[in-house]
Amino acid sequence: MIEAKNLEKRFGKQLVFKDVNFKINDGEFISLVGHNGSGKTTLVKILMGLEKKSGGDILIDKKQTIGYVPQFRNIDLDYPLDIEQFVRLNLKWKLSPEKRRKDNELVNEILEKTHLTELKNRPLGLASGGEKQKAYLAQSLLNDPKVLILDESTASLDVEVKMQLMDLVQELNKRFKLTVIFITHDYELSKKYTKRALFFENKTIKPISINDVSEDMFELGGR
Amino acid sequence: MFGYEFMREAFIASTFIAITAGIVGVFVVSRNMSFLSHTLSEIGFAGASFGVLIGISPLAGMILFTMVSSVAVGSLSAESSRREASISTISSLFIGLGILFLSLSSQSSSYATNILFGSIVGISAKEVQQLMILAIVVIVIILVFYKSLAFDSFDHIGARAAGLKTRFLSVAFLITLALSVSIGSQIVGSMLVFVLLTLPGATARYLVHSVPKLIMVSVGLSLAGVWLGLYLAFVTNWPVTFFISSFEVIVYFMGLSYKNWKLNH
């Protein structure tokens, strides 16, 4: 479980958010919703320990590894690694043949889970947008995370491909009780796949039911 | 050709240079640091003439200058958008200094051309030994950080998301790059050391799709280039650099054509 108690964050004098209280249960699929600059990425960074809180508390079980799927990556047409090798970047160096064999099994299992087995030898540079997102997802699953954070992973995809990716995430969420935190500006997807949202507004964050979200909460601009 | 001692020394030295440059080159290309490696070779030239001026060895001068400046460029250009400008700035400064040091020291200009364009006759047994030690240092550093360096170089954003210390890796890599430039300059010359540090690594990207294979192909192409270059330079008495760079350029275009051919078939 992840719990925030009176969490507060400032950059110098500038307040990002304060009086933040919420709980995210294990195996929950939750949206992070709010305008650009409202602090969604900052909250994620605090969760991951990349940014320090300014006050209050955030409680996360230490054993809960977090997998983060970033929004942008620089993969051009000439990018040389194939999908399997790209996923394997997230493995540690192991000397013992036994451990290496286990790693290979793990990689195969994750490629299978993310429906990438058939595509594993395709150079990532030549893969489609949806295939790339699946590869990013697969790579972050290698650490066996209990919490998965998707940072607008569906932003640049066609509607159909978006749904496929989200179906996959939902499957992982249900089968493996993976907690999924979905940062998004997509009203439809948020409604379809999540039951609750953390709404970033007026320098604070409120948990709300997905029935209470409205389309204007998902707009990009403004504060 | 191995009847001559200087050719034997040159052969051993260039073999070590090719292996180091081949390995480091894979990371140079994937980290988009081709321009920086070119600049470091110019800085190496300034360092060498500084070494001559104050009476230490040119290699020591080179290592000193390339290390200081690569770390300087690295910290100036944490934002990649500022990298080009900061590299240009630092290289302008050092090229100027290099020319100043050279004119202040009493060495003839042929010495400068050796530093700039390389020479196969200039290497002593002692220098070969130094090169071997430095090459081994570079290879050991790369081996120690291999996994994290590969992750950071081929997926910087993913590596940061996975919590790797990318800042530290970047500095460690810049140091190995500086060392490799200093080593490479001994044979192919500082102006063209970047040929070995960029082209084999870039060509490999068109041929294979995993990091270990990229390294193997890059080292292979690098070795083929220097060996062939040495042989042809020995036979024709033309500059070794000319042959090495021509070979690597031709192979690069062959690799590019192969990739395009494969895309259409």
From the structure above, extract its key features:
heterodimer; A: about 220 residues; alpha/beta; Rossmann fold; 3-stranded antiparallel beta sheet; 6 helices; about 30% helix; about 25% strand; globular; B: about 260 residues; mainly alpha; ABC transporter involved in vitamin B12 uptake, BtuC
Q: If classified by CATH, what would the architecture of one domain in chain A be?
A: 3-Layer(aba) Sandwich
* Biggest pleated-sheet summary of chain A: 6 strands, mixed
Mean pLDDT of chain B: 86
Number of helices, where a helix is a run of at least 4 consecutive DSSP H or I residues of chain B? 12
Oligomer: heterodimer
Number of strand segments of chain B: 0
Question: How would you write the strand order of the largest sheet of chain A?
Answer: 5-6-7-3-8-9
The percentage helix of chain B is over 70%
Distance between the amino and carboxyl termini of chain B: 44 Å
Strand content of chain B: under 5%
**Largest sheet report of chain B:** none
Structural domains of chain B: how many: 1
Gyration radius of chain B, in Å: 18 Å
Largest interface: A-B, 27 and 24 residues
Q: Quickly count the helices of chain A.
A: 6
CATH class of chain B: Mainly Alpha
Q: Give me the strand/helix succession of chain A.
A: EEEHEEHHHEHEHEE
